[in-house]
Amino acid sequence: MLLVGPFSLFPMATAQAGNPSAEPSVPQAAVADYTGEGYRGTVPLTPAEQQWLAAHSLITLAVVHGIVKSRHGHISVYSELGKGTTFHVYLPCVAMETYAAEAENKGSVPMGHERILMVDDEEQVISILRQILEGLGYTVTALTGSIATWQAFSSHPQDYDLVITDMTMPDMTGTELALKILRLRPDMPIVLCTGFNEQISEEKAKSLGIRAYITKPVLRNDFAVVVRRTLDEA
Fold first, then answer.
1. Which of 67, 94, 121 is the last residue of a domain?
2. Which residues contact 79 (CB under 8 A, 6 or more apart)?
3. Domain total in the chain
């Protein structure tokens, strides 16, 4: 059972040190699993546990970390075997007036009409990204499997103007898929979309021939700019 605790205001500087007691104030939310068994130290998850976690997780901890980090926040975790786990998330306050002004300064969002092949193994993510791109005028083929994506591309490589791929997927990673696509069509522009991932940097991705690199969470305006720029530079 997951329980989300009440929001409280704590100072960011000492919240990062685990001792919230100084300015500036930040909101803090606690998420606790009081009925779980807690972290088992170095004991790895069994294959069955890994499959269950993949099937029942709407968003991975890596993506959560990326979201919080991109907002200049901090996460602390406490886990005790037999007692469960608690995550504390600290996020800086932003005045609504400031947020509105920043949104207004974004200006118009670039649009297009090209054909895009996109893959992400998380259905919620692929659904949101598809809605964003279709709302910008693009024709989108959205899939949730790397094998199916490769089959779609290899069958009709000239039917697409851009490929957008997630990094961490079953069967093939985003870079493995990208390399197969580039061997078949070397001029194909590819965007790698990944969560908080230390396995591949933007520099490494581009050295493989990937044109653009964007991290989750994907914001609509930023996503639109990266897609348009990648297509224009192809």
1. 94
2. 38, 39, 85, 86
3. 2
- 36: DSSP letter: S
| Residue 173 structure tokens | 């990673």
Instruction: Judge contact between 63 and 50, C-beta under 8 A.
Output: no
Domain CATH code at residue 212: 3.40.50.2300
CA 68/CA 86 separation, integer angstroms: 16
Contact (CB, 8 A) for 227 and 180: no
**What whole-number distance in Å separates Cα of residue 225 and Cα of residue 166?**
18
C-alpha 90/C-alpha 75 separation (Å) is 6
Which positions ≥6 away from 72 have C-beta within 8 Å? Answer: 92
Give the tens place of pLDDT for each residue, 185-203.
999 999 999 876 557 888 8
- The model's pLDDT over 124-164, given as tens digits with 9 standing for 90+, comes to 889 989 999 999 999 999 999 999 999 999 999 999 999 99
Q: Is 101 within a domain?
A: no
Query: How many H-runs (helices) and E-runs (strands) does the chain carry?
Result: 9, 10
Eight-state DSSP code of residue 185:
-
